[in-house]
Protein 1
Amino acid sequence: MNFQDIIKKSIVEQFQGADGATGANIVLSLAVSVLIALYLFVVYRFFVRKSLYNINLNIAIVGMTVVTTAIILTIQSNLILSLGMVGALSIVRYRTAVKDPMDLFFLFWSVGNGVMCGARQYWLALMVTVVLTVVVFVLMHFPAVKAPYVLVVNGKKEGLEDNVTNLLEEYCSYYKVKSRNMDKEFERMVIEVRTKSDKDLVEQLGKIEGAKVSLLTYEGDIVG
């Protein structure tokens, strides 16, 4: 018997000696996965902002937990079937864009729970679920730095920048010009600002003759 035969025999014996997916194991695994999936349904609805909540995605999270459990139960005691399943799943491509990183987190969470339930690691799945819930809750309520504003000012070029700069120095703790566009008569400025008196700032800027002012909140980089 050569080394290759020893490896083959070891792998085959490992799968043959594995505790197969009996009826009781299947029922218990699916029951636990359904309970955890329903818990994820509630947690996702609670944590995700109402403006971004997607009921279809939440249902998909529940379904992915149960489906992943079923796949693990199917392949865990059959080497040939497991290799075929891996090959079949490797060619699947999803084109739906995930808009919120929290959605991607919950999708991976559901898949992870499905794998643990399918492998009959129930206590591990429950512990991970509890720990992640606490961690997400703490981080979601952790005080964050207030995001800066984007100030857009349009008006006649003559004297506009000097007047705007004087008001920014008075009402803002920080400001930075991100873009500046101008022609013969008019100028447009996009400025990142941090201020506690946003209402007063807009009112004073609006008093500049011929100026049009917009103050926006943003997340991410400004494209000038």
Protein 2
Amino acid sequence: MDFFNKLGKKVSETYDATAEKTGKITKEAKLRMKINENKSDIKELYTEIGKKVYEKHVREENIDINSDLEEECTKIDVLSAEIETCLKSILELKDKKQCPICHKEIEKNANFCSNCGEKLEGAKITNAEEVKEELENSEVEADNETEKEIVEEEVSGEESEDNTQE
């Protein structure tokens, strides 16, 4: 009987995890659809702005951006803000964050961007020993093995300099 209880519990846990992941995927899909709709609306507004500018040009009238195009520009600003909000929500669903420099998705607890190498806010790498320990514990692809050795040598050199200065 204990076997069936364990099996039932495991099935229930698996179902719950699957339902949660499916819910996240569905939310992400809806957010991406909203983003695409907003991008399409922005394109239409750009076309409308272009039309107005060209019509003024043909009539040889002056273009006053504040009065002639303010409404369209405001709509574009609102749609762009919605897109940004949707993108942030997608990152939260994925438990990720965005690099402030290259705007790539990165792990939420990352100290450095894996794309551009930017040190991220809140990074807590304080000395060469921690860097060396992180290198030793990380998995390195065969192509990057020599680069790892170079970094380890540099870190070892910094450690010996730090020890001689103390």
Protein 3
Amino acid sequence: MSQQRIAEIGVFGGSGFYSLLTDVQELKVDTPYGAPSDSVFLTQVAGRSVAFIPRHGRHHTIPPHKVNYRANVWAMRSLGVQAVISPCAAGSLQREVPPGTFVVCDQFVDRTSGRADTFYDGPIVTHVSAAETYSPQLRRLAIEVIQELGIPCRPTGTVVVIQGPRFSSKAESKWFHDAGWEVINMTQYPEAFLCKELGMGVVNISLITDYDSGVHADTEAVDARSVLEVFKENSENIKKVVLRLIEKLPADLSETCAYASLEFTRGDGVASSSLDRRLYEILD
């Protein structure tokens, strides 16, 4: 498959993001990993070409453990996307991270199971570092935008990614809280890491909607209705952040991307660090 240059910036959205785009072109994309969650929606924002995929489908019919993350990420990369903005609803694991806060996560902890989470199933064998999955450059710009808009912002945070669709038990929530992690979500893994595997820079903006099971804040346990209510209340803030961030992105996106020299070994034992070489062997 030859790579097209249709979009340079990608956005994965969840509930409440479907009104983000106007004047869109709907494009169906086929991938070697099956169908993405929905069509790709293409538009222009501040003169930049943007591709949007609702990760749960436009009518929120796909639960987090059933999202075809590889197809979604592949679709973005196949259209030429270099930088991905990945906002999501999330719970707080710490009292000092209240609902309404935007957390620009810099680390993740994977507590999912059974999700297809790599493009390197062979014969190409590679071990991509997850030490810094989120792009430092994109994170810096996102923090600047959130602070400029006067939205409560936590500039760092670890997101614990659980399998879903259930929420955590009180014991699990206490475990995550005691470890010192700040955010809990169901979709950041493997989405963000897959972006890195295909050389795209990625930034997460977690909108805190609740205190998870409530054990560390003396609140009621989270439920889906309360999450959606808080998310809707802050939907305008999210829209402002994403649109402003797109405007701030540099003309040359190469510095925001995961174009690090990632060693891999082909079936014939030949090592290479060229992203273009890897994409040639994977995409074609």
